[in-house]
């Protein structure tokens, strides 16, 4: 049974198409990165999977059920974003204590240990916390609930570097202890590339690709050399981008299919692997040409 299955999933707000015919699925426990620029449609996709909103067209199922207004899906999934709210009447300790009634796998002891580690006072109230501390508390709740489907929408908002590193270590340990399907959205792939097993790259509401992380690392090659020589091999390969970096010298990124670093190096060109963050930029930049076009 698929934990998640999306088929031609679309969502419109008025005339704005936030999501456009997204299709992907996942049947086994894994950590999946939902990657895209700001406004790409990541949050809309996650809200549809969580059952918070209805699609305009297409279909989404979670554990073979329509997630919208589904008590079964609600009991077996948790969606965390910066819009997550807790009752202002309850302290943090009281909020945690009430989670056991809703989530069968609730880890009460671990939740309290994490509260102590991250220096969250149990008698504090959620709405009194800083932005970073709110993010920490949300992550304690969502990870200690151990739902079969865990959805994390830009989870590190407001966290400093040290806390982000701790959070990612915690996420990995939780996944190892209790394998489940985890959707993790971010616009910084380099920050999560050691965690995720699959990547879904979204741009302007459309799926650009869905690949295992290992395949994405091998997806393209960066090549630099004399402009004339680069131009002579352009027609032979599927180029994602090319630009003149200095007079007479061009850098390009070519999709790796039946070619290798050694093939370009044999032609006297400098060839190297492309960082995954840079690759995602090239795959979604289209014809805009980067920020330099503003000054041309």
TrEMBL record:
Please give the organism.
Answer: Fictibacillus macauensis ZFHKF-1
Highest taxon of the source? Bacteria
What are the record keywords, sorted? ATP-binding, Nucleotide-binding, Transport
Output the PANTHER family linked to this UniProt entry: ABC TRANSPORTER ATP-BINDING PROTEIN ALBC-RELATED
Q: What is the protein's name according to its record?
A: ABC transporter
Recall the taxonomic lineage recorded for the source organism: Bacteria, Bacillati, Bacillota, Bacilli, Bacillales
Instruction: State the InterPro entries in the record.
Output: AAA+_ATPase, ABC_transporter-like_ATP-bd, ABC_Transporter_VariousFunc, P-loop_NTPase
Cite a single GO MF annotation.
ATP hydrolysis activity
Q: Which residues form the ABC transporter domain?
A: 4-229
Q: Does the keyword tRNA processing apply?
A: no
Q: Which Pfam families match?
A: ABC_tran (PF00005)
């Amino acid at each position: 049974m698929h934990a998640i299955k999306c088929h031609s999933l679309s969502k419109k707000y008025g005339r704005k198409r936030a999501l456009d015919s997204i299709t992907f699925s996942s049947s086994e426990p894994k950590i999946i990165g939902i990657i895209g620029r700001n406004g790409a449609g990541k949050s809309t996709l996650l809200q549809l999977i969580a059952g918070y909103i209805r699609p305009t067209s297409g279909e989404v199922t979670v554990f073979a059920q329509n997630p919208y207004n589904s008590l079964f899906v609600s009991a077996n999934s948790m969606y965390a974003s910066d819009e997550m709210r807790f009752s202002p009447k309850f302290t943090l300790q009281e909020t945690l204590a009430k989670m056991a009634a809703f989530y069968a796998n609730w880890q009460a002891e671990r939740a309290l240990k994490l509260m102590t580690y991250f220096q969250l006072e149990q008698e504090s109230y959620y709405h009194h916390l800083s932005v970073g501390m709110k993010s920490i508390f949300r992550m304690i709740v969502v990870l200690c609930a151990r739902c079969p489907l865990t959805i994390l929408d830009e989870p590190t908002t407001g966290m400093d570097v040290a806390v982000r590193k701790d959070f990612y270590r915690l996420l990995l340990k939780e996944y190892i202890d209790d394998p489940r399907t985890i959707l993790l959205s971010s616009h910084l792939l380099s920050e999560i590339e050691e965690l995720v097993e699959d990547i879904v790259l979204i741009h302007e509401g459309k799926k650009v690709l869905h690949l295992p992380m290992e395949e994405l690392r091998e997806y393209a090659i960066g090549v630099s050399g004399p402009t004339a020589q680069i131009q002579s091999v352009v027609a032979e390969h599927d180029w994602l981008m090319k630009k003149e970096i200095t007079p007479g010298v061009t850098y390009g990124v070519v999709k790796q299919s039946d070619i290798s670093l050694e093939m370009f190096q044999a032609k006297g060109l400098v060839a190297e692997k492309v960082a995954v963050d840079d690759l995602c930029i090239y795959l979604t930049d289209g014809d805009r040409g980067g920020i330099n076009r503003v000054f041309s």
